Amino acid sequence: MSDHDHTPGLTIVRDDRVLRVTIDNPGRKNAIGYDAMIALGDTFEKLDPAVRVVVLTGAGGDFSTGADLFAAAAEKDRGITPEMTMDGANRMVRSIIEAPVPVLSRIRGATAGIGVALALSADLTYAGEDAYLLQAFINIGLMPDGGASALIAAAAGRSLAAELALLGERLPATEAYRRGLLTGVLPVDELDAKVEAVAAKLAHGPRRALELTKSTLNRAALSSLDEALAAEKTGQSELLGSADFAEGAAAMLGKRKAVFAD
């Protein structure tokens, strides 16, 4: 059995027990707009009982560069506030963590901004050797969101979380794996075979045992997630209205160096 659905920025295909969710905006390196955030949250909150595993990936050669700044002006004109955006982002990430089935993320190329939170909210994260993680928020006057502060610290410790958040520099997939952020890193031509093999194994595993194992692991490892999401919403909502963010976004879109306030 195979089902297919498409919403702007997202493609969903169900193949028997496996649901494949693809962030589909390759022209913008799979940047995620508000509508795609809501659709992702809906997808994971309303999984068909026949689905036993979800594979989350990005179209083309990138996973996701995070929130779509090019769409921000149009979203503002539609009445979408920073608080609404943060609520949508938090719900999207939480829906993956709380999904009753295992979620695999398959990443290549750019995995940046809230794309990092999406990738790490999965239970198992496999990367091609061409992938890198980038928490670039600080470069445009923002802070990490989507629970990234908790997800990164839980997987690899406060030191790496601070390094990524405060310096805003790329972390190659091989180094991310060495430091505990990824489940595995493979040559690009071997990545799909590995993800498919793991998905097939989980799709035929004991559903209830997998669900309880996943929820227990997340309860133990992510006990601070609620607090992190709340703090990120408060801080990011403030920063999204700041002069520093206006300068940072303009600089990024204009491909120049930002000059922040003294």
From TrEMBL:
It holds the Pfam family ECH_1. Transmembrane segments: none annotated. GO terms for molecular function: catalytic activity. InterPro entries: ClpP/crotonase-like_dom_sf, Enoyl-CoA_hydra/iso, Enoyl-CoA_hydra_C. It comes from the Bacteria. Belongs to the enoyl-CoA hydratase/isomerase family. This is Enoyl-CoA hydratase.
